[in-house]
Amino acid sequence: MDRVAIDFGFIQIYWYSILILLGMTLGMFIVLREAKRKHFNENTITDLIFWTVIWGVIGARFHYVIYNLDYYSLHQAEIFEIWNGGLAIHGGIIFGTLYVIYFAKKRKIHILKLTDLCAPGLIAGQMIGRWGNFFNGEAYGACFAERAVLEKFPLPKFIVDGMYIQKEGKYCQPTFLYESIWNFIGLIILLFLRKIKYIKEGQITGFYLVWYSAGRFVIEGMRQDSLMLGNFKVAQIISVILLITGLVLIWFRIRKGRFEYLYNETIKEEKRIEAK
Fold first, then answer.
1. What is d(CA 230, CA 236) in angstroms, rounded to the nearest whole number?
2. Which residue intervals of 41-139 are DSSP H helices?
3. What's the mean pLDDT in 209-228?
4. What does the alpha-carbon distance between residue 211 and residue 13 come to, in Å, rounded to a whole number?
5. pLDDT tens column, 141-184
6. Which helix (H) or strand (E) holds 160?
7. Element (H, E) at 250
8. What's the pTM value of the predicted model, to 2 decimals?
9. How many CA atoms lie within 13 A of 40 on its CB side?
């Protein structure tokens, strides 16, 4: 699989960069549309998106580099070459969330209002971004000596062709595709959830954390190129933590009254009218 999308001779544009950018663009579009529906100030949300994306990319790269420090300590010039791959989404989620918390405190906005707003956009970006791994020959699963093993699955020919991983010298499972499909299903569910009349603030965030983390934990177990902490896969450790966090968020909101902490705030107005 050719990693280069456009070659101008003096500069090359990689598929990885294009797909990461497309993922970010789709995510921003989803967030901005929902922000408009929720009557957020457009400039406020634009500022939030701009800086969250920047800190998310920094965090994603930092997370990847720190777990490959033996390599990057010897190849320091490559630390900033993110077009070659190496953006670990959990680092992006952590750094991005920390900035959202700071932003919410500074602007006096409830944190969960912002995380609920961003969750569908985030999973949409992840859904498309995984295809960048495909073109970079990353995020693959078990490898097979024969191409015929992959051809047994209902996969397009270009995916089968692209799953020949050079450094393995074999065809490998497209775990990037499994996660992309899982994220697509999660996106559809999130878009539906936020339309539910009595959905509460924090439950959309909670569902995102549970859905993404459960899928990532399983799919990460199939991967052959995971970041490791001793004998454990880093992504699985973080997935467990995020999954538990999501369940706690959902549980605490379920325990609240029917009309408390509603995501769709207009319902509060309806309740006041009914009470008169």
1. 13
2. 42-66, 69-72, 89-107, 111-136
3. 97
4. 33
5. 999 999 999 999 999 999 999 999 999 999 999 999 999 999 99
6. helix 157-162
7. helix 234-254
8. 0.92
9. 25
